[in-house]
Amino acid sequence: MTDTSAGDALDGGQGPTGGTIEGGRFREVLGHFASGVTVVTAMEDGAPVGFTCQAFTSLSLDPPLVALAPAKDSTSWPRIARAGGFCVNILAEGQEALCRDFAVSGGDKFRGIGWRPGAGGAPILEGSLAWVECEFVQAHDAGDHELVIGLVQDLGVGRGRPLVYYRGGFGRFEP
Predict the structure, then answer these.
(1) CA separation (Å) from 134 to 7, 53, 60, 83?
(2) DSSP string covering 56-119
(3) Are 116 and 124 contacting, i.e. CB atoms less than 8 angstroms apart?
């Protein structure tokens, strides 16, 4: 048995399969994992900022922590990190257009979007299925992304069904 550190792969080491998986194949296979879709928001210098984020998960119950993974080339994430707190808005099935709007770089993503400030000030988007407001705890290097940890400060639920992302497209969940 070979002991290969996962850290080696994150640091550019070759690990057991490091460097041998083609990007397209990686996306194809992992695209079979259905996930919800979120928009991460914050206030920076009095202005709302946000981006679409598919890589989001609960991390710990005690203390209540969540994790998300913004791309290193994101122009919005550094602004959110500087804000010190953020809100993860879990999107409802009717919010695909909003998801697409927040996925593009630049522009006024909040134009025509209803929102209210959460307890910590981060925007809670109108119509969200749920929201989780967090204090930014730390970020770790994770390849072409950062792995961000947030300490949950407040949260709530709306109504509806989730917007689901699966195999490169959006859909709905029927229980």
Answers:
(1) 27, 15, 13, 11
(2) EEEEETTTTEEEE--BTT-SSHHHHHHHSEEEEEEPBGGGHHHHHHHHSSSS-TTTT--EEE-T
(3) yes
Question: How far is CA 106 from each of CA 6, 18, 75, rounded to the nearest angstrom?
Answer: 34, 33, 8
Contacts of 29 (CB under 8 A, 6+ apart): none
Give the separation between CA 124 and CA 115, rounded to whole angstroms. 5
> What's the average model confidence in pLDDT over 97-120?
94
**Dihedral (Cα; 23, 28, 29, 32), 10-degree rounding:** 140
Q: The domain 23-54+75-132+155-167 belongs to what CATH superfamily? A: Electron Transport, Fmn-binding Protein; Chain A (2.30.110.10)
At residue 15 the predicted structure's pLDDT band, cuts being 50, 70 and 90, is very low
Whole-number Å distance between alpha carbons of 149 and 74: 17
CA atoms within 13 A on the CB side of 17: 4
Mean pLDDT of all residues in 128-137: 97
d(CA 19, CA 10): 11
The residues with which 131 forms a beta bridge, in sequence order, are 89, 156
Count Cβ atoms below 10 Å from residue 160 Cβ, excluding itself: 16
